[in-house]
Amino acid sequence: MVSKRYLDLKNALIDLIERGQPGDQLPSQRDLCERYAVSHMTTRRAINELTQAGRIDAVAGKGLYIASPKQQAESDPLIGFQEDMAQRGLRASSRILNAERISASPQLAATLATDVDEPLIRLRRLRLTNDQPMAIQDSYLVALFCPDLLTHDLERGSLFQTLRTVYGLNLASGVTTVEALIATKADADLLGLSRPAALLVTEQITYLADGRAIEFVRSVYRADRYRLRMPNASLRGMTGLEMSVWIDARADGVVTVSTSAYTPTVEHQL
């Protein structure tokens, strides 16, 4: 049973968050205990729930802060960044940091199941939403399928849409992996982050209908503005429940994995 004191504390924290601005510092756990006459356990529970909900950033050794709103993006390997953000009513844009033809290294050749020294197109872009940095993406495409790709406007246009409409490619499937890292100085500078800062990192291989790989892309998202939702079809089929996996990275380097069906239970400290 949820106690009245717990509800009063949680509602008071929500009120402070809604009246404040992202980055504002909140009272410490000790101050909250004294102010609302609740136990440390009750206070910690309220803080944890609001942290897992993306409302509070709990920074080890510094305190509690109002979190910036996160874009809740669904992991669909066949939807590009621009389409993904447009579905959420956001204006997406890109800045090309590097665009060149390269030869496949042994590692890239293995990833794309092609030959070493196979011609590839490397495209490095800073991705923005409403003119604010959101992600850095490094794409490696097999040049055989899109030989003159670099002649197209890839700052304003969609890469996936260009592959489909200009080259007639059927992007049929993709495999995505997710991890969390602490931002390097170079990544933090590009994304406008103060260090230390957590990042969500995805790596994806996109396949054509015949099973050949066309693209490997590594995307580095700022975790204070990005939350990843991964629908879990296998669990849905086994249990009959509509289940999703949410992946968050907090400012203190803690990554939380949770599902829509029950309370978040897994945390990994970087």
Write the layout of secondary structure elements.
Elements: H1 4-19, E1 25-26, H2 29-36, H3 40-52, E2 56-59, E3 63-66, E4 71-74, H4 81-86, E5 92-103, H5 106-112, E6 119-129, E7 132-142, H6 159-165, E8 171-182, H7 185-191, E9 198-208, E10 213-222, E11 226-231, H8 233-239, E12 244-249, E13 254-259, E14 266-269
Parallel strand pairs: 4-11
Antiparallel strand pairs: 1-3, 2-3, 5-6, 6-7, 7-10, 8-9, 9-10, 11-12, 12-13, 13-14
Number of E-state strands: 14
Low-confidence stretches: 72-76, 232-246, 257-270
Please tell me what the overall shape is.
elongated
Please outline the major beta sheet.
6 strands, antiparallel
* CATH homologous superfamily grouping of the largest domain: Chorismate lyase-like
Portion in helices: 25-40%
The helix/strand class is alpha+beta
What is the CATH topology classification name of the largest domain? Chorismate lyase
Question: Percent of residues in beta strands?
Answer: 35-45%
Cα radius of gyration in angstroms = 21 Å
Number of helices: 8
Strand order of the largest sheet: 5-6-7-10-9-8
What would CATH call the architecture of the largest domain? 3-Layer(aba) Sandwich
* Average pLDDT for all residues: 78
- Kindly provide the name of the CATH class of the largest domain: Alpha Beta
Describe the structure.
The strands form 3 sheets. Strands 5-6-7-10-9-8 form a 6-stranded antiparallel sheet. The chain is elongated, with a radius of gyration of 21 Å. The protein is of the alpha+beta class and 270 residues long. The chain has 8 helices and 14 strands. It has helices at residues 4-19, 29-36, 40-52, 81-86, 106-112, 159-165, 185-191, 233-239, and strands at residues 25-26, 56-59, 63-66, 71-74, 92-103, 119-129, 132-142, 171-182, 198-208, 213-222, 226-231, 244-249, 254-259, 266-269. Mean pLDDT is 78; it is low at 72-76, 232-246 and 257-270.
